[in-house]
Amino acid sequence: MVDRCNCLPACSSISYDVETTQTTLDLEKFMRVNHVYDRSDNFYITTIAIYFKESYFITSKRSELYGWVDFLANCGGLLGLFMGVSILSLLEICYFIAIRPFSVRSRITSVEKRDTNEVQNVMLPVIIKSE
């Protein structure tokens, strides 16, 4: 019945190995030991003995392999491994987004000032007097 219900297995369970054996009963010996002397034709004897096959049992407990924190840590580690993301990479990205444009702008303005100074120096008239 359990196999047909498509149920998930229990988180904790105990299962026993089952083994059945049978043998014939020596009726005459049984009657002598138990002091039964009256035997009629409708006399049926059945004995059942139930024993544990092993004197110990193994319990198993099911639990999650990865918790939420373990899953996030593994994903972050794999992302860092495959994408090469590290703290230095993040700092470089911040540098190129925030600091680099300002340094490029200041460099361009200094180059423009130098060029205008050179142009002004070149255009100065030179007057030479001859004596």
TrEMBL record:
The keyword Ion transport applies. GO terms for cellular component: plasma membrane. Keywords: Ion channel, Ion transport, Membrane, Sodium, Sodium channel, Sodium transport, Transmembrane, Transmembrane helix, Transport. GO terms for molecular function: ligand-gated sodium channel activity. It is a multi-pass membrane protein. It is found in: Membrane. InterPro entries: ENaC. The chain crosses the membrane at residues 71-98. Belongs to the amiloride-sensitive sodium channel (TC 1.A.6) family. PANTHER family: AMILORIDE-SENSITIVE NA+ CHANNEL-RELATED (PTHR11690:SF288), AMILORIDE-SENSITIVE SODIUM CHANNEL-RELATED (PTHR11690). This is Pickpocket.
